[in-house]
Each structure stands twice: as C-alpha cells, then as structure tokens.
Amino acid sequence: MALKRDIYDEDHEDFRASVRQWIERSVLPNTEQYIADKALPREFWLEAGANGFLGLSIPEEYGGAGADDFRFNAVVGEELAKVNAAMPTCMGIHTDITLPYLLTLGTEEQKKRWLPGVASGELLLAIGMTEPSGGSDLAALKTNAVRDGDEWVINGSKTFITNGYSADLVITAVRTDPEKGAKGITLFGIEATKEGFSRGRKLDKVGMEESDTAELFFENVRVTDAEIVGQLNMGFIHMMQKLPQERLSCAVANVAHAKQILVETLQYTKDRKAFGQSIGNFQHNKFLLAELFTQIEVAEAYMDKCVAAHAEKELTAVEAAKAKWYSSQVQSEVLDHCVQLHGGYGFMNEYRVARAWRDARVTKIWAGSNEIMKELIGRELGL
After folding, report:
1. CA distance 30 to 40
2. 280-288 long-range CB contacts below 8 Å, 24 or more apart?
3. Which of 40, 163, 275, 359 has minimal Cβ neighbours within 10 Å of its Cβ?
4. Which residues touch 15 (CB under 8 Å, ≥6 apart)?
5. Measured over all CA atoms, what is the biggest interatomic distance in the chain, rounded to whole angstroms?
6. One of 246, 291, 333, 350 is an active-site residue; which one?
7. What mean pLDDT comes out for the span 160-164?
8. Is 151 among the residues known to form the active site?
9. What is the 3-state secondary structure (H, E, C) of the chain?
C-alpha cells in the first residue's frame, strides 16, 4: 500500500468524483475520435465549461468559480492524465498556463471581454512563445511589433503551439523594442479573427495525436494598446513569473499518467502467462515492478509537496524546475519498462502502453527542456 496522500481534503475529493463522472460519461466514449480528428472538439470544451472545470480560478463576476486553490486544477490534470497525456496538456494550456496571464495582468476591460468565454469553453486559449528558430530561448524571439500611429503592426510566426489550430485567443510574445533584448518583449492578446492572422496545418507529431498543435503566422496583424497583456516591454519578466505554474502543471500530469499505465501494467503481468506462470512472478519482473512503484510514489510525494507549496503561493521557480525535469524523466523510465513488460504487444498502437510511451517523450522537451531545467537548478547551487 502506498502512503496516504494528505494534500487533498473532502472538497477536493468530491470535486475529483465529479471530474471522473464527466470523463466516464462524455470523454472515454470519444477518445478514438479525438485521435482521428487530431484535436479535441468544441463540444469537449463547452461541456467542460458547463461543468465548471475551465473557470476554477476565474472570479465569479466573470463567470468562474472563484476557487483560488491550485489543488483543484491539479485534480483535473490528474484525472485527465489517467485517460491519456494529451488531454491534461490541452486543458492545462487553457486553464493553468494561459489563463493566469489574463487573471493577474489583464485590464478590467480585457477581463470582461475574454474571461466569461474562457470559463464557458466558448473562447479557447493558447500561448504563443516558441518560434521555429528559438526553442527554449525565449529572449531571442523574432516575431516583432512596429508602432504605426495608435496601432502596432505584428509580423512573425510561432510553432509547436498547443491548441493552436483551434484557439480563439493567443497570448503572444512579441518583440517591441529590438534594442533591449529580453527587456524589449511584450505580450499581446491576439484574437484569431484578426486580419493577417493565420494557422498552418495540424503538425504531425510522434505522439499526443489528440492534441491539436500548429504553426501560427502573423502578417501585418494590427493591434492597439488595448491588446497588450501586462506592461509594455515587460513580457519576458511576465513569462518568467508564470512559467513555474506551467512546469508544475506538466509535472502533475507526468506522474499521474505514468502511475496509471504502471497500474495497468501490473495487472497485465498478473494476467499474462509464460513458462507456466504469470510473468509478474518472475524474480526480475517482480523486482523491477517493486522499483517502479517506489519510483512513482517518491515522485508523487514530491509533486504533492510542490502542489501544496504552490497553493500557498510559496513554490519557487527552481522547485518547479526540479518537479518538471524529474517527473518527465521518471515518467519516461517507467513507461519504457512498461512497454518492455508487455513484450511485443507493447509495440502495438492498439495498446495504451504504446501510445503512452510515445506521448511521454515530449515532456522532456517542452516547458523548457530538461537540460534548461538543470541549468536553472545549477545556477541556484551557485554554479
């Protein structure tokens, strides 16, 4: 038996039951269609909104629940991760990663204009950081905005944008002062209806097929100061302040996803017979499973500590970096062994373990590569 988790109270567990009911009723019957469409349909978002899962941290006056407690977000991420890795990713981009920019940096007019649709699922969010040539180097982005009277004219492109093909509003990092480097970046809320905004095809990824991922293009897109999210030329600072929650959201999903597949793999090793006995009874497999469950439970304990700290507004950027790199590394190691324990069936796409193994690989790359996470941790160590 694992140690009892102590960060969730009765309210959180009641909420978890509601999320599970929604998943069982409306999500699980449609997972194969999501894969075929390479996207989550608008019905998914509208129903999630109707159930109150998209506006947890949005104040009630803007159509949300006003629950400023990240543990509720973590519950949604964990339950979706038990289905597959893509859904907590798409949901997290909307609720955990992009929404906070509007909540803490948005003007009153922006909140009234955008937040009700965010909560209902009528306005899908994405964040435009990564560029074709930049990767994790956000300070080197090239998408630029030039002042033209009362407007800004934006040109450039973004890539690997989750929800990018479907998003109605993209919080976009743009260079507004080419002379200032990282201190010359501004965030703009760019609506998909803007003239000059376009999307490329849904990108053909190795995994996470349910997640719509696209390139975005900006050709003479005109916006005003009313679309600036936060302060002019403070975009890089804003992103650095918000990235810890993004990394924690990823870490929560990483551990929950790997744990679910490991539980299913344990059952497989009990059911699968070879040489006259269940393959889980072979000493090597028994010892391996003992190691994997311990590894997952240790990772989960650290994630819980980070979630609890973040709920109290005490999580540091370095602690989030540790959570992100460690959880993605553990997930990859655990799922690699799970594939091996399934033998040839582990290489078949019809088996969840194969899809999970493919889906997990990107988590060591996005939200800042694991190498970047270790760089941040090393600097904190004075190196």
Report:
1. 10
2. 285/341, 288/337, 288/341
3. 275
4. 72, 75
5. 80
6. 246
7. 97
8. no
9. CCCCCCCCCHHHHHHHHHHHHHHHHHHHHHHHHHHHHCCCCHHHHHHHHHCCCCCCCCCHHHCCCCCCCHHHHHHHHHHHHCCCCHHHHHHHHHHHHHHHHHHHHCCHHHHHHHHHHHHHCCCCEEEECCCCCCCCCHHHCCCEEEEECCEEEEEEEEEEEECCCCCCEEEEEEECCCCCHHHHEEEEEEECCCCCEEEEEECCCCCCCCCCEEEEEEEEEEEEHHHEECCCCCHHHHHHHHHHHHHHHHHHHHHHHHHHHHHHHHHHHHHCEECCEEHHHCHHHHHHHHHHHHHHHHHHHHHHHHHHHHHCCCCCHHHHHHHHHHHHHHHHHHHHHHHHHCHHHHHCCCCHHHHHHHHHHHHHCCCCCHHHHHHHHHHHCCC
Q: What is the 3-state secondary structure (H, E, C) of 84-110?
A: CCHHHHHHHHHHHHHHHHHHHHCCHHH
| Nearest partner of 49 among 11, 95, 102, judged by Cα | 95
What CA–CA distance (Å, rounded) separates 154 from 135?
Answer: 20
How crowded is the C-beta side of 10, counted as CA atoms within 13 Å?
0
Determine how β-strand 169-175 pairs with β-strand 125-128.
Answer: parallel
Rounded to whole angstroms, how far apart are CA atoms 352 and 356? Answer: 6
Q: Taking residues 140-161, what's their average pLDDT?
A: 96
User: pLDDT tens for residues 73-122?
Assistant: 999 999 999 999 999 999 999 999 999 999 999 999 999 999 999 999 99
Over residues 368-383, mean pLDDT: 96
Average pLDDT of the segment spanning 43-65: 97
| Token pair listed for 167 | 């998003």
Report how far residue 255's alpha carbon sits from residue 369's, in angstroms, rounded to the nearest whole number: 17
* pTM of the complete model: 0.96
Q: How far is CA 330 from the centre of its chain?
A: 17
Phi, psi of 226 (to 5 degrees): -65, -20
Bridging pattern class, strands 185-191 and 277-278: unpaired
pLDDT at 134 over 80: no
